[in-house]
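Final paragraph of the annual report: two paired records, presented back to back.
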Amino acid sequence: ASDPAGEPSLLEMTQFALAEMQKSEQGYFLLIEAGRIDHAHHGSNAHRALGDTVALSEAVQWVVDHVDLRDTLVLVTADHSHTMTISGYPRRGNPILGLVETQPGQLAKDATGLPYTTLSYANGSGYKKRRPDLTEVDTTAVNYQQLGTIPMYSETHAGEDVAAFAVGVNADKVRGVMEQNALFEVMHGALFPQTEQ
């Protein structure tokens, strides 16, 4: 692992856990959590949140490539959203962590004449009493905290619906807007298809 503390990556932990679970003759339930996405959002750090989302994507793809989808359900969802927002009208190809440009080299300005980032948070520790001029700030840096509208010790969870994606056994039941407890029935039906109603 490239982690300075020696912690295995999410992919490495997933590979180990799946290998152990696949030893079972009775089937298994394996939960893989990319909890650092949540940690990064609470710290108003979109760089790390997005990087950890990519790590989750890589782990999920590895699982999909290494299970038999004829007898396995892979379900990906979140337990809540965060207050990260996307500000409007960056040019096509504008770096997601960068300042909004209307065209290459031309920064968009807010109503006070200051440039702004594409991503920010509705609340959190990135709040500043006086909005800084970000013209010379590297908003793509790993430790950069996106600005927050409301001062909070830590960015909070939000309330909108989250996505759920599925492939494999019973995946056809993951459709449209669902109550979160309906995902239990999808998983139960995949584990115990003979008892599904």
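The closing record of the year follows.
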Amino acid sequence: MGNEFLEEIINYYLLSGDFNGLPIYNRYDYNLEVLIQLIKEGLVEVISENDVRNPHIKALDLNLSIEHQIETVKNGKVPMCIYPTPKALEDIVPDYTKPYTMALQKGAYQFDIVFFSIEILERYNNNPKFSIMDYGYGGTIFVKNEFYDEGEDEDYIKDYGMAYFKGEQLNRAVGVFLRDLANLSSNTQMLWKGLEIKTQESCFVHPNFKRTLLMGEWVNDYWILDAILDEMKVINEQCSAMGLPPLFNKLWGIDYQNRPDGYRTIMLPTMKNYNDFVLVLEKMFVSNISIDTFQVDALRIKKVERKDQKGDAKGSIVMLKEWLLQNVEAPFDINEKIINPLRKIRKIRQTPAHEMCHNEYDIAVYKMQNELIRELYGAMYAMRRLFQGHPLAKCVEIPKH
């Protein structure tokens, strides 16, 4: 009797399509004593709605005691599901061509996080068939619609988390739920397996990844790359309120479809990726500055000349500096806070544009990108705060975030 019931539980788990537990609420054709004996022998685990919201998948290790499980089945009033334990699944023949599906077939938890080298994301980042929806602490990988029928649709990671190696030096990895990995094709699972980090315990995933996807909490943090785009939008609105042309010729949205290509976290820390990122910043925040803004008189604002004393046209950064110094009394050094970060971007951009540069792998790139982003955000924030002081710009609503 016990073997037959255990076999039913195992078969249901393996053939359910999603490694579900056998539901036994409102069912009376099983022997309670047999079930209790299977629990005591460590062959099954019982999960109820008193333990988790959805007992139909074995998401995480709940550390439920044998006594607790026995009390649950004796009560019998709450919806519950039975799962075979790894001990009960020792002798099953798994699908060895799918290592992550095999892990679930052997009783692993669906929301176990597996860590991989950040290199795996480059496979998708450099392939125009795929899109990476990056939101800072994690993202989604999916095939573009026009390539969906080419067999690439199985390469879909619903959620990956930005992960890090423990230690003082910033070094990134990527973490993915076992559940998502198990849905990949055999070839793709093998590819991911080849880049699995050997010392899994050396990594941890961004806390916001767990907070949103495992704990169901709202994350109030605002990604700094999105914040910069929103600062640009507010600055242009302030210019309009002051009777000026917009400071930036073009704006972008924070959703992945409207985000500039390459405006994201650097995945693989190479100098090429860093230089490519700086090129994007230069186009967005330096070359994108409109000189028309500086050539219009308005309330308490005087325009600046387009040409210098030699008759040469001034650059956008030079005009911005002259315009700010002429029209604004800042409580900080404008050069240090606003002008220098923009000049830094342009200077870094000019090196690969005029010289042959060797590509190098250097995890210091992560820190370099972070510093550059923080300085740029500081510049956008400072300009927006300065413009808020203009009497006509006070009507512009500043989003709470």
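The chain has a mean pLDDT of 92. This concludes the annual technical report; the extension proposal builds directly on these records.
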